[in-house]
Amino acid sequence: MLHLNELEIFVAAAEHGSFSEAARFLHLSQPAVSQSIQSLERRFRVQLFSRQGRTARLSDSGKALLPLARELIAAARRVEETMNTMSGTVAGHIHLGCSTSSGKYIMPSRIAQFRALYPAVRVDVHVCSRDVVVQQLLEEEVDFVISSRQLDHRDLEFVPFCTDEATLIVPANHRWTRNRHIYPDDLLDESIIMREEGSGTYVALYEALRAHDIAPEMLNVAMTLGNAEAVALAVEEGLGVGFVSKFVAARSIALGRAVEVTVEGFDLRHALYFVRNRRTPMTHSQRAFWDFMQVTQPEYSEASK
Predict the structure, then answer these.
(1) Could you read off the pLDDT of 204-229 as tens digits, one per residue?
(2) Residue 216, domain extent
(3) Within this chain, do residues 171 and 82 fall inside the same structural domain, yes or no?
(4) Which of 67, 89, 111 delimits the end of a domain?
(5) Which of 42, 55, 166, 239 is the most buried (most CB within 10 A)?
(6) d(CA 135, CA 155)
(7) What CATH code is carried by the domain that includes residue 21?
(8) Is 264 a member of any domain?
(9) Count of CB atoms within 10 A of residue 226's CB?
C-alpha cells in the first residue's frame, strides 16, 4: 500500500533538489530519505531521480509523479482538517513563504499570537527571494507569501497587512550622528551600501531619490548586498551608510553599533502584502490564518520608534 509519508519525502526531495537538504528539512537522516525514495522506485518500477553528486534531479517519471503526489498530500490535509473541525478543533500545517527581511522580524510574534488561538496549527516559514516564493505559491508549494511588491497576476490575491519603513543608519562614530539629520544632497558625498534592485527598500529609496532629482547612478555605491541584515552589519563595521527596514535597524541601534539619521523630505514607507493563490481552495486552518493576518497589525519595537 502506498504510504503518504513516502510521498511527502519524495516531494521534499524534489523541491530541495537534494536528499540531504530534504532530510534536513524533514528532520530525518539522509539514509531514511534514500530508503523511502528507493521504496517508491521499487513499487512503481521506475527511476524517480537522476543522482549527480549531492544533487537529485527529477526524471521524466518523477516529473509525472510530482503534481499527483502534491495533490494527494493536499487532499489528505483537507481530510484531516475537516475531520478535526467536526470535533471543534482547528488543526493543520501551514507553509508560509517570506521574501522580505522585515517579514522575518514580524512573523515570529504574529505566528505566536495565532498559535495562542489555534495551538493545533503548525506554521513553517520558508525564506527565499521574491521570485522564488511567488513561484512556489503558484505551484502550490507554499500556502501564503509575504511580499513587499504587488504583481499583476490573475491567480494571486494581495492584501496589505502592514506598513514597513526604511531608515538610514550610519556607524556609531559617524559625523552625522551629531545632528542625526541630513539633506538628500548630502548622500552624494558618502559611501552607500545598497540593497539589490527589486527589494522593497530599494524601490522606496529609488522613488524618494527621484522626488529630489537624484538618480541612483549619482550615488557613491560602495557595495550591493542581498539582504538587510548584511547591510546593517556592513554599516556597523564602518564600510558605509545604508538604508534598511526599521525592523532590522532596531537591533543595530539597540546595541549601540549604529545610529538612525533622518533625511529631509524622504518618505520611505511601503506596504507589505499577504498573498494567496486564488486557484487553491483554503483549508479551515488556512482560512483562520488568512483572516487572522488581516486583523492585527504589527508594531515596531521601542528601539526603532
Answers:
(1) 899 999 999 998 889 999 999 988 89
(2) 163-269
(3) no
(4) 89
(5) 166
(6) 12
(7) 1.10.10.10
(8) yes
(9) 11
46-87 confidence digits (pLDDT tens): 999 998 777 889 999 999 999 899 888 888 877 877 776 666
Q: What 3 state SS string does the chain have?
A: CCCHHHHHHHHHHHHHCCHHHHHHHHCCCHHHHHHHHHHHHHHHCCCCEEEECCEEEECHHHHHHHHHHHHHHHHHHHHHHHHHHHCCCCCEEEEEEECCHHHHHHHHHHHHHHHHHCCCEEEEEEECCHHHHHHHHHCCCCCEEEECCCCCCCCEEEEEEEEEEEEEEEECCCHHHCCCEECHHHHHHCEEEEECCCCHHHHHHHHHHHHCCCCHHHCEEEEEECCHHHHHHHHHCCCCEEEEEHHHHHHHHHCCCEEEEEECCCCCEEEEEEEEECCCCCCHHHHHHHHHHCCCCCCCCHHHC
Domain count, the chain: 2
pTM > 0.90: no
The CATH number that applies at residue 252 is 3.40.190.10
Phi (first) and psi of residue 48, to 5 degrees: -90, -25
Q: Which cell numbers in the block locate residue 130?
A: 521574491
Which of 35, 56, 89 is the C-terminal boundary of a domain? 89
Residue 83 lies in a domain: yes
